[in-house]
Amino acid sequence: MRRLSRRELLSRAVRLSWGVLGACVLGACRQKVIEIEKVVEKEVTKVVKEVVRETVIVESTPQIIERTVEKLVTAVPSPKPKVVIVADVMNYGWTQFAMLISSAFEELLPNVTIRWNASSDWSAYPQRIALLAASGQLGDLL
Question: For the residues of 46-80, what is the DSSP string, one character each?
Answer without folding.
Answer: EEEEEEEEEEEEETTEEEEEEEEEEEEEEPPPPPP
